[in-house]
Amino acid sequence: MPGQREDLVALFDHVWDRFWRRMDGLDDETLDTPLGEMAGYFADATGRSFMLHIADELIHHTAEAALLRDLFAGVSVRS
Known about the structure:
The chain is mostly helical. About 65% of the residues lie in helices and about 0% in strands.
């Protein structure tokens, strides 16, 4: 796991860019179509709602990682 802030920012930027490159390739018809049986519990959800969910999760978990990083930045571990 990267330990430096710059590494984490670069990793986030890479994931975010990759996510949007994939989403840009989808047309409105695809995004507005329900995901179907393969999505299990989310079968009735559309590709667009799933895309927004993934973006929300990425932001949410990145913020959690940043919070933990900041909380533990000044903590020293004793043997």
